[in-house]
Design brief:
The protein is built from eleven helices and eight strands. The protein starts with a strand and ends with a helix. 48% of the residues lie in helices and 20% in strands. By secondary structure, the protein is of the alpha/beta class. An eight-stranded parallel barrel has the order 1-2-3-4-5-6-7-8, surrounded by eight helices.
Length: 207
């Protein structure tokens, strides 16, 4: 299972500093939506230039104009971009068209999708390289939130998937056991006193 760090910081300088600390322990460097909105496509260029050997994941959460938005991110150096699972099939297909032309990939984010296993199957059929079973920060704060429900839905989908939503040292082994291809850790790494140590611990837990 690959380890992905979600960098939900707000400046290129902070993102580069964090990426430099954790790069030895992660496979995928995700540039979070707030970061890209704050800094623009230049942060993608900067991080890819600094870490050309890592998969750079631009979390665009595209809802429309899939081909155009994906192409912009790929041209800036992104290897993967996200399209919302709630978007129209044509939006996903457009992003996949851009990805195939660039030799890159599209990930479909299932945040706020009700029937996640069904939409995951549909997204994979449309060309997504994997599907992200994602609970956002707002959802995680609600009473009754269950990471296990995400893991169960991912396992049920039968397609390559990642899990994002409160993944940390106490849960990453369960994420791996669910069959996930990628574990996405955000605040467990960037919110730690020692991000490098936190990333190293997660890497050790999954082997």
């Amino acid at each position: 299972m690959r380890l992905q760090v979600a960098i939900d910081l707000l400046t290129t300088e902070a993102a580069l500093r964090l990426a430099g600390q954790v790069a030895p322990y992660v496979d995928v460097i995700e540039l979070g939506t707030p970061l890209i909105k704050s800094e623009g496509l230049s942060v993608i260029r900067a991080v890819k230039a600094a870490h050309p050997d890592k998969t750079v994941f631009a979390d665009l959460k595209t809802a429309d104009a899939g081909e155009l938005e994906a192409r912009l991110a790929f041209d800036a150096g992104a290897d993967l971009v996200t399209v919302l699972g709630t978007a129209d099939d044509s939006t996903i297909s457009g992003a996949v068209t851009a990805a195939r032309a660039a030799g890159k990939g599209v990930v479909v984010d299932l945040i706020n999708v009700v029937n996640k296993p069904l939409r995951a199957k549909e997204a994979h059929a449309l060309g997504a390289v994997f599907v992200e079973f994602h609970a956002g920060l707002d959802e995680q704060a609600l009473p009754g939130f269950s990471l296990q429900a995400l893991l169960d839905a991912g396992a049920l989908s039968g397609v390559p998937f990642s899990v994002a939503g409160g993944v940390g040292a106490t849960s990453i082994v369960a994420v791996q056991a669910s069959g996930a291809d990628v574990a996405v850790a955000g605040s467990a790494i960037y919110g730690a006193d020692d991000p490098a140590a936190a990333a190293r611990e997660l890497r050790a837990l999954i082997g």
